[in-house]
Structures are given as C-alpha cells and as structure tokens.
Amino acid sequence: MTDTPLIELRGLAKSFGPVHVLHDIDFSAYRGEVTALVGDNGAGKSTLVKCIGGTHAIDAGEVLFDGVPVQIGTPRDAAALGIEIVYQDLALCDNLDIVQNMFLGREKKHGIVLDEYGMEELAGTTLAGLSVRTVTSVRQKVASLSGGQRQTVAIAKAVLWNSKVVILDEPTAALGVAQTQQVLELVRRLADKGLAVVLISHNMNDVFAVSDRIAALYLGRMAAQVRTADVTHSQVVELITAGRSGSLGIGVRA
C-alpha cells in the first residue's frame, strides 16, 4: 500500500453557466481500497464522476494520477489512464451475448476477421479471475441475465482493459439481498486485486460493508473524507444532510 493516491483531485471546480455545481473539491482514491462517494441528490456526485471520466471539462483545479498531474479532456483520455466507469444504466446490449458486450467497440481481430475464440477465452478468464461463478456461459444473451449478473458483466467489462481505477455508480440500487451481496463481494475483490475502486451509493449498509474510506459531498463541496472505521452511520448521515458533523468536528465551513 502506498501513501500516494492513485487518483487525486485538488481544488476542482465546475460550473454550468451561472450555476456553480462543484466548489474547490479535494478527493483521493487509493489503490487496493474502496472509497465510497456519498451525498444527497444534487450534491454533485454525478458531475464529479463525469469530470474524472472526461465527459465534463473542469473549470479550475488539477487532477493527479499516481502523483503526476494529468489532463483529462475526453473519455478516451480517462480510458488511456486506466479509468473505467460503470454507470447505473450499465450500457449493455440485451440482444448481444456476454462476450460481444464485453468487447463492444473494442473487438479483437485477425486482420479483418473477428477473433471470436480469443475474445471468448479472455472474457472467461476475466470472469474467472474475479471469482464470478453465477454466469454459466459467456455466450449467454444479456437479455437472459438477472440484475446481479448484468452488474457483474458490466464490472468485468470495465476491468478487462487493464483498468487501474473503477468507478461504480449505484451498483446495487436495483438488486435483491442475495444479488447485492454477490456484487459487494465482487467490489471487494476488485480492491483486493490492487485497483482503486470508487463506489457511489445511497445505501449506508453497503458503504459500511465494503468501503475503506468515505468521501461525503454536500451541496457541491467536500464535507469530509474519512476512514470508514473512524465514523458511525449517524455521523455520515449528518455529513450528507447537514454538511458537517458536530461529534467529528469537521464539515463544510459555514
């Protein structure tokens, strides 16, 4: 474990016209850890993630990757660094099978011919490497998969490309208890493999079950970034709803 964050934001700001969405944001995520990004609706979580992913250009501040300042102007820039984002809609095609979804837009070829065997083997290896046992065949159509299996495929697709940072947007939002547990175990395995995982979630039980650190946004400002072991559920809820915690003595300045 290193003390240098794999990805770090310093003083990040973002506005849309006269609307200031993010103000002077500091944020860090470390390799081998799960950092939960929490906040109420409208706190700025989605905008922050889209800035990290290159969808939105930042107005001020800097981004460091493994301690080195970088420019992320497009999603392609983010992908080149090893940043992958699994959005809530998963961006999977129901009419395609698992292999086709995992390589969509990045197909392996021998000349002009698709390398079907190579893609199938790599998809299977990736799922096996994540200890995924709920998928019986990589040639299953995504339409036939459960919500938990779809989430698993989307995460496997994200880590297929030598990812270093994986950002998961509400991965358990539409899942039942058993499927939620499977996805949380997968999230933990990603961190254990050395990736920096950012988990966006409204579910405090999930946050405390799997995260190492918690970053709480409040009205576009970072209220606190703390180690999960050092806070309680109620203190995190206080940071989310009020922007500060009296018992912790931290929060957004009034």
From TrEMBL:
Signal peptide from the UniProt entry: none
PANTHER family: CARBOHYDRATE TRANSPORT ATP-BINDING PROTEIN MG119-RELATED, SUGAR ABC TRANSPORTER ATP-BINDING PROTEIN
SMART domains on file: AAA
Pfam families according to UniProt: ABC_tran
Coiled coil: none
Keyword annotations of the record: ATP-binding, Nucleotide-binding
Protein name per the record: Monosaccharide ABC transporter ATP-binding protein (CUT2 family)
Source taxonomy: Bacteria, Bacillati, Actinomycetota, Actinomycetes, Mycobacteriales
Domain ABC transporter: 7-244
Family annotation (Gene3D superfamilies): P-loop containing nucleotide triphosphate hydrolases
Gene Ontology molecular function, alphabetical: ATP binding; ATP hydrolysis activity
InterPro entries: AAA+_ATPase, ABC_carbohydrate_import_ATPase, ABC_transporter-like_ATP-bd, P-loop_NTPase
